Amino acid sequence: MSLKLHLKPYEKIILGGAVIKCGGTPVNFIVENNSVAILRQKDIMTEAGATTPARRIYFILQLMYIDNDARSPKYLEAFAELEQEMAAAAPSSRRYFVEIRDCIASGRLYKALKTAQELIGYEGQLVAQADKGLTTPASHQPAFGAPLASAVSP
């Protein structure tokens, strides 16, 4: 299946491990063999941007995706360590890790990245609630993908 891409002026993408930057005019192109890693600029996280546990998990998954190497011990060990830390600090985040691990095992690394983006959003909700002094009782844990705000007791 081909993939149509539209790049804005000076927008970057990662294509098969290479960073490509668009020139000063917009460009449309079609990737006919979509078996290489493609990440748009909006989905690329730099190491400096990996400032929270969920962002560090995304960064590790991004490296797996770009390198197309979900079996590398260095990535798997880093992911397992971060997963353990985050799941211990926020047990309600475990449901994201179940899906991410399934995606890694089946080689669906782009889907793992998308789930990690959801995890980043969830982490943000947890931090916002902590800042407000709210807690989420274990009996009110939201279903996978449900907005956290709907699970908070009044």
Major sheet size, sense and barrel closure: 3 strands, antiparallel
* Structural class by helix and strand composition: alpha+beta
Q: Would you report the number of β strands?
A: 5
Helix % is: 40-55%
Low-confidence stretches: 137-154
State the shape: globular
Round the mean pLDDT to the nearest integer and report it.
Answer: 86
DSSP strand (E) fraction? 5-15%
So how many helices? 4
Strand order of the largest sheet: 3-2-5
Termini separation comes to 48 Å
Radius of gyration: 17 Å
- The secondary-structure element order is EEEEEHHHH
List keywords for this structure.
globular, single chain, two-stranded antiparallel ribbon, disordered C terminus, 14% strand, alpha+beta, 154 residues, three-stranded antiparallel beta sheet
What does this protein structure show overall?
The chain is an alpha+beta fold. It has 4 helices and 5 strands. The protein has helices at residues 53-67, 73-89, 94-106, 109-132, and strands at residues 3-7, 12-15, 18-21, 27-31, 38-40. It has a 3-stranded antiparallel beta sheet, with no helix packed on it. A two-stranded antiparallel sheet has the order 1-4. Strand 2 and strand 3 (18-21) form a beta hairpin. Helix 1 (53-67) packs antiparallel against helix 2 (73-89), helix 1 (53-67) runs antiparallel to helix 4 and helix 3 (94-106) runs antiparallel to helix 4 (109-132). The longest helix is centred in the last third of the chain and has 24 residues, at 109-132. The protein is globular, with a radius of gyration of 17 Å. The relative contact order is 0.11. The model is unreliable at 137-154 (pLDDT under 50).
